[in-house]
Amino acid sequence: MSSVLIKNEARLGLKLVAPAVGIIGLLVIYPILFNVYLSFFDVQLNGTKIFVGFDNYSELLGNPRYYNSIGISVVYLLGTVTGTTVLGLAAAILMNQEFHFRNLARGLILLPYFAPVISVVFGWQFIFDPVNGIYNHVMVDVLHLSDTRENMIGDPDSALFVVILFDIWKHFPIAYLLLLAKLQSVPKDLYEAAAIDGQNAWGRFWHVTLPELKFVIATVVLLRIIWNLNRFEDVFLLAPNVETLPIFTYYQAFSGVVDQGGAAAISVIQLLVLVGLIWLYVRKVLKW
Amino acid sequence: MNKLNPLIVTSTVLANGLLFSSMSQAATVEFWTAQTQTDRLQTIELLADTFEALNDNVTVKVVAVDENEMATQMAAAVAAGTTPELIEVNSELIMAFGEEGVVDTSSHQAVVKDIGQTRFHTGALNSLKSPSGEYYGLPYHGWIQGIWYRKDWFAEKGLAAPNTWENIAKAAEVLTDKANNQYGILVGTKQDSYTEQVFTQLALSNNASEFDEQGNLVFNSPATLETIEYYNELAQYNPPGPQNWRARDYYLQGKMAMFFYSTYIMDDLSLAEVAKSSLTSENFKELSGGTFDPNLVKNTGFEPIITNKSAASYGTVSGLVALKNQNAEDQKATQDFIKFMYDPASYIIFLHMAPGGMNPMLKGIAEDPSYRTDPTGVFNLYGADQMKQIVSGFDTIRSFSVVDGKTYPASGEIFAKSVIPRMIYDVTIEGKDPQEALDEAEAEMKAIIAK
Fold this sequence. Notes:
The complex is a heterodimer of chains A (288) and B (451).
Chain A: H1 3-38, E1 41-43, E2 49-51, H2 55-61, H3 64-95, H4 102-108, H5 111-114, H6 117-128, H7 134-142, H8 156-183, H9 188-196, H10 201-229, H11 233-238, H12 245-254, H13 260-285
Antiparallel strand pairs in A: 1-2
Chain B: H1 5-24, E1 27-33, H2 38-54, E2 58-64, H3 70-80, E3 86-90, H4 91-99, H5 105-115, H6 122-126, E4 138-150, H7 151-157, H8 165-174, E5 183-186, H9 193-205, H10 222-235, H11 248-252, E6 256-262, H12 265-270, H13 272-280, E7 300-303, E8 306-307, E9 311-312, E10 314-322, H14 328-342, H15 344-351, E11 359-360, H16 369-372, H17 378-382, H18 384-392, E12 402-403, E13 406-407, H19 410-416, H20 419-428, H21 434-450
Parallel strand pairs in B: 1-2, 1-3, 5-6
Antiparallel strand pairs in B: 3-10, 4-6, 4-7, 4-10, 4-11, 8-9, 12-13
Helix pairs in contact in B: 4-19, 5-14, 20-21
C-alpha cells in the first residue's frame, strides 16, 4: 500500500474514533481530572475555592474511622465475592443438569437479582425487626432457642454478617447466569473422555469444568470486586452502621453541608486503590 | 426578496410570541419543602396554585425534599446552578446555609419590614439571626419535644411523672419487661437527628452546652459526660439495637411505656384514622402492623419540661429561607410568595396539616378562631389550655445554637455533620467508653469550627 493510502486510512480511523474519544474525554477523563483538582481545595457551597494543598488527604489519612472502614470493606469484599461466586457456581452446575421444570427453576433463581433493592431491603427489615419481626418471633416465642430478642440488622456484631448474606443472596444470580452460559458450551465429549480416563464426578469437575470456566470465573470475580468496592445502596439502606468505604465517604463528605474537597480526596484514593487492585488481579493472579 | 417576506413575518410573529409568553411567565419560585407526605404536599400545592391564580405571571414549583437529604440536595443544586428560590427547613440547617453564604438576607429583611418585626415571636425570630444581625431565615412553624408516657402503666406501678432524671430512669427500669416484649423508653441510638434532639434536651437540663457566652467550645465538660452516661443508662431499656423515631410505633402498639417525641405525635395519638394511616403508610417502613388502642389518648401523658440541674424544654423552629438569586423578578416573586404564606388564611391552612406539630410563629394566630377549629378536631380533644401552654413554650425554647440571645452558627454545621448522634451511637451500641467518645466528638467539632 502506498504511503498516501496508509495516511488516508489512519486519518479516517482517527475520524471514526473521534466521537468516542470525545465522549469518554468529556464524561470520564474530565471529571476524574477535575476531581483530582478539587481534592486540593476547600470548596464552599457558593463556589469559592480555597487552596489547602494536601490538607484534605492528611485529614483523611489521620482519621482512625477511615482505616476501620477499609477493614470492613475488605471483609465485605472477601465475603460477598467468595459467597456469590461459589453459590453462583453451585447453582449453575445444578441448573445444567437435566430435570423436570428446569426452565422454570432457571427463571426463578434470577428473582432476587431482578427485585428492586428498596423493596427487598424493607422485606428483610420486616423479617428481622426486633419487636415485631418473624425471625425473633420464631426464635424466641415459637422455638425458644433464645431468651432475648436480637436486632440482627442493627447490632454491629451481626450487621456486617447480615449485609454480606444479603449481598450474596441478591447478587449470586448474576454469577450464576454468566457461569451457566459458559457451562452450556462445554463440549460433552470432554466429560466422556475424562470418564473413560477413570475420573469420577469430582475429577471431572476439577479437570474439565473448572479449567473451562476459568476465565468466566475470573471475570465474575473481577466484576464483583469492582461493583462491591463501590456498593452503596444495599449497605446504606439495610444497615447504615456498617461503614464500608462508600458509606464512610457518605458520612464524611455528604452528610450535612457537603465537603466537596474532602469527598474528592477520598474518591481519588479510592480510584487509586481500585485501579491498583484490578491491575494486581489481572496481571498477577490471572496473568492475562 | 418578496418570496422571503412571508417567512420573515412568520418568524417575527413566532419570536414575538415566544418573547411574550416568556414575559407572561416571567418569574418562577421553586419551593423546596421538607413536608414529603402526600397529603401535606397536596395542601402546599393548593397554596401554590392559589398564589399563582392571584399572580398570573408567577409560577410556583413545589418540590418535596426529605429533611435528611436537604443539605446534600442543596449542595448539588448550588453546584449545578439550579438553586431553588425558597426552601423550608429546620433552624440548624438555616444557620449552616447562612454561614455558607447562599442565603438572600435582603429579602428576609424586606419581608420582616413589611409584616412588622413585633408580630413575630421574638425568641423564634432571634434564633435565626446571624452574628451580625441579619436574618438567615424567617421562622414559619415550630414544635416542642417532651416525653409522652402511659399514665395508666405509671399509676399501676405507683411511678411519678417522668419529668426529672431520677423519675425517668426509675420508670424506664420498672416498665421494661423484655421477656414479654415490652420496653421502658425510646431514646434515639441511630446516627440521625432524632438522637441529637433527645440528647440536647437532656444535656440542657444538666446545664451542658456546646458554646459559652464568649463563643468558646465547652462541649467536653463533666456535665456533658454525665449526660452521655445517663443516656447510655436509658438506652438499656430501649427496644433492641439502634433505634430512631420510627420506633414510636411500638408505643402505638402498646409495647413501650415512654418515648421522646415532638407535639407532632398529637394527631397520631388522638385519631384512630390518623393512627391507622401511620401504621400502614410510608411512615411505617420497618414494622409490622398492630391494632389501634382507642383509649391511648386518655392514657397518655405529656411532660415537655425535664429537670435535673435546671428545667429544660427543647423544640425546633423551621423557617422559610430565600436563596440568592440573580433574577430580580424571581426575587420579587419569592418575597411576595413568602408574604402570601404568612397571610393568616394561607398560614392557618399550612399549620393545620399537623395540628399541634406545626405551631404559629406570628403572634395572634393561635388565638384566631379559625386556627382553633382544625379540620380533624385535635385541638378540641386536647383542650384550649394545653394548646396555649404548648405555644407559650416558644418564648423560652433553648437549643445549642443560641446562648443568651447570641447565635452560634457553627452549631448548625455540627448538627449537620451528625457529630453528636455518632457519639451516642458509639457509646450506646458499640459500647465505646463515654469519655473517649466525647473526646472524639470534641475533636470533630473543633475541626468543623476551624473550617
